[in-house]
Every structure is written in C-alpha cells, then in structure tokens.
Amino acid sequence: MSNPFDDAEGRFLVLVNDEGQHSLWPSFAEVPAGWRTVFGEDTRDACLAYVEENWTDLRPKSLIDAMGG
C-alpha cells in the first residue's frame, strides 16, 4: 500500500492548527481534532502552492508571540 500523503493524483486539503502550522491532508481522511480546513479540496500541487504562499514563517504562533512578533 502506498502512502496517501504522497499520492500525486490524490485530492487534498490544507489544514491549520491553533499554532498556525499547516498540513497537507488527504481529503478522504477525517480532519483531526485541533485542526481546521483552510484550503481545498484540490490537487496536491495546488495545496502545496497554497502552503508555500501562506505559511511563510514556520515558527509556531506561541513562539512568534513570545518573541514579540
């Protein structure tokens, strides 16, 4: 069985948690607690493009806040 996260033909969502961290998620899988959908359902490439454009500071929100922005 192949990894559904690597399926170039799959359909995906982009999820974000309260720390502002993003995750690519297969659209057939249940969204885990603590995460919300912010983009998709779309292709893997479209979801990756969304993540690259919108998650520019990889630090967790709590660290950004602690460092004064």
Automatic annotation (TrEMBL):
Gene Ontology terms: cellular component: cytosol
Pfam family, any one: MbtH
SUPFAM superfamilies named among the record's database cross-references: MbtH-like
Residues in coiled coil: none
Transmembrane segments: none
InterPro entries, sorted: MbtH-like_dom, MbtH-like_sf, MLP_fam
GO terms (BP aspect): siderophore biosynthetic process
Domain MbtH-like: 3-53
The name this protein goes by in its record: MbtH protein
Source species of the chain: Nocardiopsis mwathae
